[in-house]
Amino acid sequence: MKRTLWLVLTIALVNTAWAETRYLTSDWEFTNDNQAAEFQLDWPLHPTKGGAEFTLRRSDGSLFLQATIKDTHKKALFAKDNMVGKYRYYHPNGKLKREGTWDKAGTPIGLETEYSELGFPKQVIRYVGSGWYVTEKSYYEDGQLSSESTGYD
Q1: Whether the bond into 44 is cis, omega within 30 of 0
Q2: Residue 113's beta-bridge partner residues?
Q3: Pair 98, 108: CB distance under 8 Å
Q4: The model's pTM
């Protein structure tokens, strides 16, 4: 039992030791100067079937974006065409700001929901292709439904 506990703790500490932070400029380019960094990237990235999930934080450590990139070896790692799948942006207070899905070209598809800093929905957009979208629902600041569109499918 003691040996198993020791092994579990050792594995946990080794994994923690491998985790580090990479720093990014406001243009999402890597920098070694953490004083000039606008963003922090949790490293290493987490491999998935479709690429690698990542977490990007503001310089104060608060969440900014959680998403997936296709090619971890691409020079422009965070280029629009390297983003794919579900994404979640966050307000500085940690509440969800926007969530949706990117297609293989990094273009939003399907539904995207935007939230207020209080966590209430602001609007729901349906991306219908080639960058075109329709606002399906709009909400008042208190989260109550303001308007709803129909008949565009």
Answers
A1: yes
A2: 99, 124
A3: no
A4: 0.82
